[in-house]
Amino acid sequence: MDNLYKALADKTRRKILELLKKSDMTVNEIGKHFPISGASLSHHLDILKRARLVISEREGQYIRYSLNVSVFEDIMKNIINLLQK
Amino acid sequence: MDNLYKALADKTRRKILELLKKSDMTVNEIGKHFPISGASLSHHLDILKRARLVISEREGQYIRYSLNVSVFEDIMKNIINLLQK
DNA sequence: TAGATATTTAGACAATTATCTAATTGTATA
DNA sequence: TATACAATTAGATAATTGTCTAAATATCTA
């Protein structure tokens, strides 16, 4: 859970998730929406991947990222759990 | 939203929320559960307060903290929103 | 196979965050 | 009012995190 909350704690990463919910994207396509280097972007994607919030799949020369919807369920459960006695 | 996610990104703070869900507590009572100084604890409580995750109320010599349940609803909505197209 | 493009990895640096001790503020009570 | 206890604030330091450039790896195509 720690990885998950840490991954969500950054604005850029949340914006990446927002983009990916609309459609899967390659790193390059994602990068067009941010004023950061490819290396930094790659680093953010790595954090999202470790948190299992996204899935990556190579497609020839490109790597395509998509949301891993199932993990969002885990977050929701955890937040609900923060409230239940 | 940024404050909120940042507040949740720390293990100690999530544990504080876990404690408060069971019952309201004074700073001293909360502190008994953590191996950190009162000053650090106060800092964490401040972050939780700014994120509106907790509410503080002075009771004479003590300050009593409690969960602000309504904000959890906001988080849930935001997470659901990360999924909706 | 060589050159081009896509992405990641390595290593350095700057910004942010968590922690500490010491000092301060607020309240209770002897 | 003086002392004790509760909590916060100030200022310093160490750890973590986000960013960069340069180098490495993977794939495609001429």
What ranges of chain A have pLDDT less than 50 throughout 5 or more consecutive residues? none
- Label the CATH architecture of chain A: Orthogonal Bundle
Oligomer: homodimer
Chain pair forming the biggest interface: A-B, 23 and 23 residues
Q: Tally of extended strands of chain A?
A: 3
How many domains of chain A, as an integer?
1
**Percentage of helical residues of chain A?**
55-70%
Q: What is the CATH class of chain A?
A: Mainly Alpha
Q: Label the overall shape of chain A.
A: elongated
Number of helices of chain A: 5
Assign the CATH topology of chain A.
Answer: Arc Repressor Mutant, subunit A
Which strands sit side by side, in order, in the main sheet of chain A? 1-3-2
Chart the SSEs and their pairings.
The structure is a homodimer of 85-residue chains.
Chain A (H helix, E strand, L loop, with lengths): L1 H7 L2 H12 L2 E2 H5 L6 H13 L3 E6 L2 E6 L1 H13 L4
Antiparallel strand pairs in A: 1-3, 2-3
Chain B binds a DNA duplex (30 and 30 nucleotides) through helix 4.
Quick recap:
The structure is a homodimer of 85-residue chains. With 85 residues, chain A is α+β, with helices and mostly antiparallel strands.
Features:
85 residues, three-stranded antiparallel sheet, alpha+beta, 3 strands, DNA-binding, Arc Repressor Mutant, subunit A, homodimer
